[in-house]
Amino acid sequence: IWKVDKNVDNLLTYPQIIEAARWLQKNALVAFPTETVYGLGANAKSDEAVKKIFEAKGRPSDNPLIIHISDQEEVAQYVEEIPEVASKLMDRFWPGPLTIILRKRKGILSDRATTSLPTVALRMPDHPIALAVIRASGLPIAAPSANLSGKPSPTKFTHVYNDMNGKIAGIIDGGDTGVGLESTVIDCTNPTPVILRPGGITKEEIEGVIGEVLMDPALQSNDEKPKSPGMKYTHYAPKAPVLLVDGSDLFIQQTIDRYIAEGKKVGVLTTEEKKNRWKADIVLGCGKRCDLSTVANRLYDSLRAFDETNVEIILSETFPNRGIGRAIMNRLMKAAGHRILKQSRSIDGRNIV
Ligand code: TXA
Ligand code: MG
To answer: What pLDDT, in 10s, does the model give residues 126-179?
Structure first.
């Protein structure tokens, strides 16, 4: 464990950063903070190094990794071409929580990292520690979120420690991450870019720079096959099942009461504004409804916090499907296995409750 203050000057010459970078050069795994979630880094040019990521996470080998770089200039080495929309997005949002999919130049990056796809996902994170360790290593760094596959992504050092301790060379403890949800993934290999995963940069912000973009239809329904391989797996799930409840306060409390009447210990995932309304076994406030970025920031920690309790079902409020709310709802829907109970309409998920 290397504890590093992200605010110190000259991180590039910091002994802990240099040591972490050396391990990356030796093809070992190092976890480090980014502005979204902690990443589990490996040398993206080495099959041997990248293989360790899939092993440590228990990640399906057909789910490609994002390649992290510290300088926009590096992109040209890894891709066939940089379309104008991609340049505009990089200029505007890098460093930052936007991952751009481009056509891969063959033979440079590990095929295991890109799971032999003809494309590659690239991102320049906006975090001084991430940038310093990538730059110090002199390598492109493949880095998925530093959680065990299926669990909520890590936004605090302790999350990484609990999931990865003993499995990797080291963890840089740089405190809590900022955004709290992963980067937005946008495919720029077609004339009209497609958002494959909503995240830290909103659709609205992207459209402000390059005009209209599409959302992968798989994000709206359960049946479409997602273009981003990672989006098909169950994710972000605490131990107890999650059910989203969309309706009036009365409807939500009635739903809580129904599970209590069945003898279940009920947890409620709510916001500061509504926290005192619910009568249930455990009520966790997760940010403020009036500022959804605070909900994004705390969502994964709240989901993990339920694992420390004895609740048998977690009922969650829903959020408006715009701005950062789109990413919040995407993660909650996945945590819930798409189970959502709506007050007036029928049920929109696979499992009817
Ligand atoms: O914020 C983030 O993006 C974090 C931090 C650590 O940077 N990383 C992250 O990585 O969330 P991961 O591996 O948990 O998610 C990567 C997503 C997956 O859904 C994966 O399928 C998709 O990106 N992806 C990677 N390469 C792709 C490609 N060539 N085409 C389509 N999707 C791709
Ligand atoms: Mg992940």
So the answer is: 999 999 999 999 999 999 999 999 899 999 999 999 999 999 999 999 999 999
CA of 205 to the centre of ligand 1 (A): 20
* Single-letter code of the amino acid located at 82: I
- Closest to 316 in 3D by CA, of 258, 265, 251, 246: 246
* Closest atom, ligand 1, to C-alpha of 229: 21
Atom of ligand 1 nearest to the CA of 40: 6
Name residue 95's amino acid.
P
ipTM for this prediction: 0.99
> What residue ranges in 265-311 does DSSP mark as E strands?
266-270, 282-285
- The pairs formed by 111-117 with CB atoms below 8 angstroms and a separation of 24 or more are 111/47, 112/47, 112/50, 112/51, 112/54, 112/61, 113/44, 113/50, 113/64, 113/65, 113/67, 113/142, 114/64, 114/65, 114/67, 115/61, 115/62, 115/63, 115/64, 115/229, 117/64
Q: How confident is the model at residue 117 (pLDDT cuts 50, 70, 90)?
A: very high
Strands 39-43 and 30-32: antiparallel
Ligand 1 within 6 A of 231 CB? yes
Question: What distance in angstroms lies between residue 198's CA and the mean position of ligand 2's atoms?
Answer: 13
Other Cβ atoms within 10 Å of 61 Cβ, number: 11
| Contacts of residue 123, Cβ cutoff 8 Å, sequence gap at least 6 | 66, 67, 68, 69, 94, 97, 98, 99, 100, 183
Strand 39-43 versus strand 141-142 pairing type? antiparallel
Give the β-pairing of 141-142 and 184-187: unpaired
What is the tens place of the pLDDT at every residue in 95-115? 999 999 999 999 999 999 999
pTM for this predicted structure: 0.94
Rounded distance between C-alpha atoms, residue 267 and residue 296, angstroms:
19
Which one of 32, 34, 127, 145 would you pick to mutate in the ligand 1 pocket, going by the greatest count of ligand atoms within 8 A of its CB? 145
Q: What pLDDT, on the 0 to 100 scale, is given for residue 236?
A: 77
Round to whole Å and give the CA distance between 6 and 222. Answer: 40
Residue 285 identity: G
pLDDT at 230: 62
